[in-house]
Specification:
This protein is α/β, with parallel strands linked by helices. The chain has a domain at 9-188 and 226-251 and 287-303: Rossmann fold (3-Layer(aba) Sandwich). The chain has helices at residues 22-34, 90-95, 97-118, 154-174, 198-207, 227-238, 256-266, 291-297, 305-322, and strands at residues 13-17, 37-42, 61-65, 80-83, 121-127, 178-183, 186-187, 212-215, 221-223, 225-226, 246-248, 253-255, 273-276. The strands form four sheets. The protein has a seven-stranded parallel beta sheet with strand order 3-2-1-4-5-6-11, sandwiched between helices. Strands 7-10 form a two-stranded parallel sheet. Helix 1 (22-34) links the parallel strand 1 (13-17) and strand 2 (37-42). The longest helix has 22 residues, at 97-118. The radius of gyration is 19 Å and the shape is globular. The chain binds nicotinamide-adenine-dinucleotide.
Length: 333
């Protein structure tokens, strides 16, 4: 299966936990396009079967309703397990704190057990949140982070940190071929308008000409990656034998205020920007050091912010129009 350059052939049979979520659904689609058979496992707690509706008729796709904290069983061979099941937006994990910890711990344990049983490669979707409110900028993989375990975000950040430790233990003591990818903020089609993350919130508000709710003065920074770039990076990493952790994200750093202003402009909106309180432990800066991903995988993001934003706004507009929340564009004067 392994090629001489350390990269592998397209995996034949892949399990994607959390496959009906934002990132999972794009992963399933990309894997099908690459020729893999895809078993998408999801309990729809924050995702929806609608995200993979367009894949349902594909002969190599199967959607399995399952909570990975109960058990994970798959008959037959599996080459690759991509463990993406977890609430990911602050609104979700603040509403589901115990579940978030359970899926980070027990769900990861079950997914690792599956990979061990099948002799498959395992990739953990970790996060830039393991760096917390960072004191090193930009964040290289060698940075251990600055996380508040008892703050409201601790359930997510520490769940992922535990997941990284568990993944490493399976590699060292159980000889499982594991990899850890630290994903930085990603945006694109199929984000939920009400998931509370800045970009979908601002786009929803801008399309409705509602006030844009900027946290604090908006001078905190984020580095956002278009979803197609992220998926390409993850699949390149999954196809390597590298243990990681590897940062995958776009190092193009912007203030949140600029993100809000660009969204108002790209939506042709009349929204004004207003200030609301900053969430507790909201990171002040966020930017990946992507040197390792470039060196290891030859990967770097290709979609500029303006282009990715244009595609994302167009998708949100189409969805809102289809849901009857916006008039068809032909009727807009
Ligand atoms: P999402 O909420 O859209 O997707 C997560 C999916 O996991 C959902 O479909 C949900 O129903 C499913 N899920 C949750 N608990 C489950 C369980 N116990 N059993 C089965 N399925 C379960 O979020 P997303 O943005 O697509 O994030 C996917 C993964 O990537 C998460 O692990 C997240 O931590 C990680 N990540 C995402 C980002 C980002 O910017 N989107 C950044 C860093 C890390």
């Amino acid at each position: 299966m392994k090629l001489s350059n350390g990269h592998r052939r397209t995996p034949r049979r892949v399990v994607v936990t959390g496959g009906a979520g934002f990132l999972g659904s794009h992963l399933c689609q990309a894997l099908l396009e690459a020729g893999s058979e895809v078993l998408c496992m999801d309990n729809f707690i924050t995702g929806t079967p609608v995200n993979v509706l367009h894949l349902q008729e594909h002969p190599r796709f199967r959607l399995i309703r399952c909570d990975v904290t109960d058990f994970v069983h798959v008959p037959g061979e599996v080459d690759l397990v991509l463990h993406f099941a977890s609430p990911a937006s602050p609104i979700d994990y603040l509403k589901l704190p115990i579940h978030t910890l359970k899926v980070g711990a027990i769900g990861t344990w079950h997914a690792l057990g599956l990979a061990k049983d099948k002799g498959a490669r395992f990739v953990l979707a970790s996060t830039s949140e393991v760096y917390g409110d960072p004191q090193v900028h930009p964040q290289p993989e060698s940075y251990w982070g600055h996380v508040n375990p008892i703050g409201p975000r601790g359930v997510y950040d520490e769940g992922k940190r535990y997941g990284e430790a568990l993944t490493t233990a399976y590699r060292c003591s159980e000889d499982v071929d594991t990899g850890i990818v630290r994903i930085f903020n990603t945006y694109g089609p199929r984000m939920r308008p009400h998931d509370g993350r800045a970009i979908p919130t601002f786009i929803r508000q801008a399309l409705g000409d509602e006030p844009i709710t900027l946290a604090g003065d908006g001078l905190q920074t984020r580095s956002v990656c278009y979803v197609d770039d992220l998926i390409a990076g993850i699949l390149a990493f999954a196809g390597s034998a590298h243990p990681g952790p590897v940062n995958i994200g776009n190092p193009d750093e912007m203030t949140v205020r600029r993100i809000a202003e660009d969204i108002v402009a790209a939506s042709g909106s009349r929204s004004e920007i207003i200030s609301i309180d900053r969430p507790v432990d909201d990171p002040q800066v966020r930017r990946p050091d992507t040197a390792l991903a470039e060196e290891l995988l030859g990967w770097r993001p290709l979609v500029p912010w303006e282009k990715g934003l244009e595609r994302t706004v167009a998708w949100f507009r189409d969805e809102a129009t289809a849901a009857g929340e916006l008039p068809p564009e032909s009727l807009v004067g």
